[in-house]
Amino acid sequence: MSAASAPVAVRRPGLLASPHLKRLLTCLMVGVVLALLTGKSGSNQHPASGITGTFKSANAYVWIAAGAVLWAAITGWQWRGVAVAETYRGLSARPRAVWAMRPVRYPSYAVLLLAAIIVPNWLNGFWQEVLVGQIAPYVLLAIGLNVVVGFAGLLDLGYIAFYAVGAYSAAYWTNQLPAHPPFTVNVFWAFPLAVVAAMLAGVILGAPTLRLRGDYLAIVTLGFGEIIQLVAANSKSVTNGSEGVAPNSVPNFSFHALGIHYTWPLEVLPGGHMPWYYLILGIIVVVVILFHLLENSRVGRAWVAIREDEVAAEACGINPLKYKVMAFAIGASTSGLAGVFFASKTGVFDPSSFPFQQSVVVLVLVIFGGMGSLPGAIIGAAVLQYLPQLLRSHIQQPDLYAYYGVILIAMMIFRPQGVWPSRRRAREIAQAEAGVGGADALGAPGAAP
Amino acid sequence: MTAPAPAAIPTSEAKDVILDIRDVTLRFGGVTSLAGVTLTHNRGEILSVIGPNGAGKTSLFNCITGVYQPQEGSITLHGTGGDAELVGRKPSAVTRLGVARTFQNIRLFNALSAIENVKIGVEARQRTGPIGAMLRLPRTRREERESDARAFELLEFVGLRQRANELAASLPYGDQRRLEIARALATAPQLLLLDEPAAGTNPSEKLELAELIQTIQRDTGTTILLIEHDMKLVMSVAQSVVVLNFGKVIASGAPHQVQNDPAVIEAYLGTAATSQGGPDAEH
Lengths: 449, 283
Prior knowledge:
The complex is a heterodimer of chains A (449) and B (283). In chain A, 67% of the residues lie in helices and 2% in strands. With 449 residues, chain A is mainly alpha-helical. Chain A has a two-stranded antiparallel ribbon with strand order 1-2. In chain A, helix 6 (125-151) packs parallel to helix 11 (274-295), helix 6 packs across helix 15 (356-369) and helix 8 packs antiparallel against helix 14. Chain B is an alpha/beta fold. Chain B contains 11 helices and 10 strands. Chain B is globular. In chain B, 46% of the residues are buried. The model of chain B is unreliable at 1-13 and 272-283 (pLDDT under 50). Chains A and B meet through helix 11, helix 12, helix 13, helix 14 and helix 18 of A and helix 3, helix 4, helix 5, helix 6 and helix 7 of B.
């Protein structure tokens, strides 16, 4: 036992402080959580049976063993030393550099668009339904919220309210509510009308509340979302209250001009989804192009300036309130667009179609994809809206949000900037971690002058 | 219609005042930060505001730029576009009237490149809105070209042309100071406020800075209001000096007069006004 003792006694860190052991425990815990999630469910009579049942099956130990393997893999990877890390960094930098080249980028966009047009034709009806009903509208919502959260750095927890404004506008202007419009229009005209209505709602909410910063703004927007839902539920003479809009009352989109008469078909018909898909794909493409131009303009730079340092932005002649309201209104009107599509496609909704939870889901899509990045918002919405459908046959529906949670926690630990972050955002997060300036309105409540 | 009184002639003719600060008082609760500060600043001159820490120098800057609203007094800008009262305006409005500033602790947009930082300044004078930006209207495209060109020009002017595409945060300290000045100049100011531009710079950077400040005055005709602790710098560039202590103006005049003013020497707690050092207590 007589080890060669050092002249100066160095206090050994506790056993638990060893990074290897810590990581091993973490990996094993991940295994346990996954085992619980995939194992037996408890019942109301025997809540604990989910846990005991899980660990009676061999499945659980496979997961835990997988955790151990994960630990071994990470540790082994690290032992290979810095040289490996350097190679890896080089590899991850290369796609960026390649992507930055115009001759690569623009044809890639064209190919992706072409794929988006052609590939869904080969899907079966169920997946087409998922695409039109679950994924595409949320892509549009995420792109809109990205302007508010990603570009301008404002936390909006009541975003779905503008979706409701859009949907109710569509119902109003097609005369499907107890309140009658001055004239009835084709649903297509509901798009501009709903955009205006949602934009007004955004300005009315934004102008007084956007003076608040960070957390305070989040709470106020949350309240606004609830107010819209409650007003819709309680003003029976205007919105038909909690009964909402009757099934198939908001007419399907139809086009009557230039001698063409076309009505978007019911979805139950074979191939009934695709016309709807092309409609919303067209909307998404236009909105993406507009927002891309917006991001790289004077307005986009003003948002970055406000996000990074509001005091300095003001010293550069930027009126923060004006630009924040602008971001809010643009985000809201995008949400309104999606709302009209939703109203016409499903034809049935009521106030409970717009719960707070939906606002959070859209926010999650944006954060998962990478704040401030248009491809990020699209990827985030596509992946996270597709996943539940994919998992549907494997997990129980009530467990769904547990998986969501695990994915998000893992994401925030290992890749806080999101799947496809904007370069500016990624830098801001890296700088905030290194202590150069605060992250933005989402994090620090801007420093006092 | 009688001839104007002779007494009015000296002030209106010999002195072309750009900034007129009168009896400005700023209080935070019971603390009086500025107590009836009055000073005038002549067009084209470099005026330096000095004083011990906590004397109210930065508070004065914040009152001019609209960050703080003083309880009493008036601050009038006699700009090329007419006279304007600055008290009661938002910082962004003050900037658009032609008053730009830098900050004591540098406040650049760190995640943006040097050129983007300056472009944001240039765009203070542009009018592209969201609709124009989304539709790429002709004016948007023209303004974009103009802001690119102007931003490169200004980077060239402060000697950062080679670093245009580097991130602001990755620039050396002295370059960050210069970049902040370029960004302030980009808003096309008539009056430039520099808040301790030499703080934290090394002696050779200080020399370059003094040169830059003089070049700005000479080439652009911009009037400069300078807060600075480094007396050597103040003495080399300023045409006149105002000394603040406890929120009051205790002396003003030409640099060498102020330097030997007993009240000033006392304000710096007995720091000897040596032949060239002067009240250089802080650095």
